[in-house]
Specification:
The protein is mostly helical. It has one domain (5-340): Farnesyl Diphosphate Synthase, CATH 1.10.600. It has 19 helices and two strands. The protein has helices at residues 5-26, 37-41, 43-46, 52-63, 68-93, 104-108, 110-123, 125-129, 131-135, 137-167, 174-200, 205-232, 235-238, 244-248, 253-261, 264-274, 283-295, 298-318, 328-342, and strands at 97-98, 101-102. Strands 1-2 form a two-stranded antiparallel ribbon. β1 (97-98) and β2 (101-102) form a beta hairpin. α1 packs across α19 and α15 packs across α18 (298-318). The longest helix has 31 residues, at 137-167. The radius of gyration is 20 Å and the shape is globular.
């Protein structure tokens, strides 16, 4: 498959516009007795972002013959979940930038940011219950079940990564990384949007299972590509802090490869630097870590792994062809495979 970046960008933009309107409708008007809570809930969702998760849900539903009304509210709910996770992740990681602007906790403090994230998660529940009116009781309950599983898996994946960082353990292999990424990224960013889109289209269980087989490797490839962008992308383009993973000591496939292939003294120094709190690191130390990654050719290694997973996703999507007729929605899903690996932002 050869993707069309311009076509994909237009599809994402159209979906993002519709989802932002829906989010505005979901979030109540602010009142004096809420301390600006609802205004702050709109901050991350209205910043410039891709809107990948709701677009995937919408494309899946509509590509399978479902109407937009059946999936739009659920797609907006997924975007609320995503932005709530981002608010909390930024606090946990001590991140400074999100979508080209300061993170919410940098602007308003940790307590307010955490509460905004909590509020977004709370608001995301009712629209899922209201799905009964749009798609029927059975599909609505199934959507709710899938989303609650997503929330649990995401928390487990985040807990796993945070425990590795806290313990400064670097004995994990590629399989450990993939398991963590499956829980932390693939389930909520790809599997859940694809499956709930199919549920809103009233697709059969075999279609949903096939979509999961497509979405899992795509999610793994996406996270590896995200890790690559963090080290190789330009801050002004990606909208996040360059080399933030090194400052934060995150366990990426890139760093795991660099450490297991480095010589003893370099490995020991790298582990010691990565284990330091962010505030105790300086730019020279982070530059040394980045140079180690380049010397070990770890970016190329991770890029090859990402492409292998993307190829698996492409093969899986080819098997879905019998359920998807020719449409802009199918085109988007095909373009997504190339975008995940070759994206620049």
């Amino acid at each position: 498959m050869a993707g069309d970046p311009q076509r994909l960008g237009l599809y994402l933009s159209d979906c993002r516009s519709q989802v932002q309107d829906e989010i505005r409708a979901l979030i109540p008007a602010d009142r004096a007795d809420t301390g600006g809570l609802y205004r702050l809930m709109l901050d991350y969702p209205l910043r410039e972002g891709k809107g990948l998760r709701p677009a995937l849900a919408m494309a899946t539903c509509r590509g399978l013959g479902g109407p937009l009304d059946a999936v739009l509210r659920t797609a907006a709910t997924l975007e609320l979940f995503h932005n709530a996770f981002l608010v909390h992740d930024d606090v946990e990681d001590g991140s400074e930038l999100r979508r080209h602007r300061e993170t919410l906790h940098q602007l308003h403090g940790v307590p307010i940011a955490v509460n905004v994230g909590d509020g977004m998660l709370a608001l995301a529940l009712r629209p899922l219950l209201e799905n009964v009116e749009r798609v029927g009781l059975g599909p609505a309950l199934n959507v709710l079940d899938v989303v609650t599983t997503m929330a649990r898996e995401s928390a487990e994946g985040q807990a796993l990564e945070l425990s590795w960082v806290q313990e400064n353990r670097w004995d994990q292999g590629d399989r450990d990384y993939v398991r963590m990424v499956y829980k932390k990224t693939a389930v909520y960013s790809f599997v859940t949007p694809a499956v709930v889109g199919a549920l809103c289209a009233r697709a059969q269980a075999q279609v949903r299972a096939a979509l999961s087989r497509f979405a899992v490797p795509l999610g793994v490839a996406f996270q590896i590509a995200d890790d690559l962008l963090n080290l190789a992308g330009q801050e002004a383009v990606i909208g996040k802090e360059s080399c933030g993973d090194l400052w934060e000591g995150k366990h990426t496939l890139i760093l795991m490869h660099a450490l297991r292939t480095a010589g003893g003294p370099e490995r020991q120094r790298a582990i010691a630097l990565l284990g330091q709190p962010r505030a105790d690191k300086d730019a020279a130390e982070v530059d040394w870590l980045l140079n180690l990654v380049h010397r070990q050719d770890s970016l190329a290694y991770a890029r090859d792994v990402a492409r292998r997973y993307a190829r698996r996703a492409a093969v899986s999507f080819a098997g879905l062809a019998r359920w998807f007729g020719d449409s802009v929605h199918r085109d988007f899903l095909e373009d997504l495979v190339d975008y995940v690996v070759d994206r620049t932002r």
